[in-house]
């Protein structure tokens, strides 16, 4: 199982740059890149912060996905 | 990433500089025991043409490290107490630092026992290369730091 997210799509909807979004959630731009690529699984605290910034429930942004073999 | 590269590289340079400095002191260290004229004690002569460039390079490297610090608001005293390679900017960097530290620890666990092997030939080695122990320690420290640096970059770019 892998934790995937819709951060990239939601960020684009709001017209934020990666830099702006990084500042809003208090991380570096490189972390936003890793989050969007799905290579970094955020902590619960960061995930909740992201949900707060997008004003959406956490499960709208993060979801479990079966890993392809 | 820049701060980790700069600080780790500076640390490696400083290990070898310090080894060179201690070697020069060791070369000129004179220990006398129950000497009819001088009694018991030791005498150190520092060759300034050798020591001064080392001190200058060490200061230069420290200033470079300070100028490239992440938190530009930190004073020199704050910066010098903290370790720049551990000044993570967010939770992901903390995770990376944890993984890189694990790699560095594993490197120490393998390089330190490996260092014991040349010490089997200690007498011969010290005869040919009297300052071998200082450089051996600097090499082990550098390998640990280098593995930390490589692991940090690897996980950062992943």
UniProtKB/TrEMBL annotation, chain A:
It comes from the Bacteria. Keywords: DNA-binding. Pfam families: HTH_3 (PF01381). GO terms for molecular function: DNA binding. Residues 7-61 form the HTH cro/C1-type domain. Coiled coil: none annotated. PANTHER family: DNA-BIDING PHAGE PROTEIN, TRACRIPTIONAL REGULATORY PROTEIN-RELATED-RELATED. This is Putative HTH-type transcriptional regulator. It comes from Exiguobacterium oxidotolerans. The gene is ygzD.
């Amino acid at each position: 199982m892998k934790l995937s997210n819709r951060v990239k799509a939601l960020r684009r909807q709001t017209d934020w740059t990666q830099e702006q979004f990084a500042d809003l959630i208090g991380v570096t731009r490189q972390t936003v890149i890793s989050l969007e690529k799905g290579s970094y699984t955020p902590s619960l605290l960061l995930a909740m912060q992201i949900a707060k910034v997008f004003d959406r429930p956490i499960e709208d942004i993060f979801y479990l996905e079966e890993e392809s073999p | 990433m820049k701060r980790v590269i700069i600080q780790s590289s500076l640390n490696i340079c400083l290990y070898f500089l310090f080894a060179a400095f201690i070697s020069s002191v060791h070369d000129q260290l004179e220990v006398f025991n129950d000497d009819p004229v001088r009694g018991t004690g030791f005498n150190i002569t520092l060759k300034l043409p050798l020591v001064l460039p080392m001190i200058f390079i060490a200061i230069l490297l420290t200033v470079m490290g300070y100028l490239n610090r992440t938190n530009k608001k930190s004073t020199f005293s704050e910066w010098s107490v903290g370790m720049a390679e551990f000044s993570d900017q967010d939770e992901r960097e903390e995770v990376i630092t944890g993984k890189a530290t694990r790699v560095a620890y594993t490197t120490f666990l393998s390089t330190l026992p490996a260092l014991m092997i040349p010490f089997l030939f200690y007498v011969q080695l010290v005869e040919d290369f009297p300052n071998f122990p200082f450089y051996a320690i600097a090499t082990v420290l550098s390998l640990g730091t280098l593995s930390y640096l490589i692991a940090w970059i690897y996980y950062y770019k992943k």
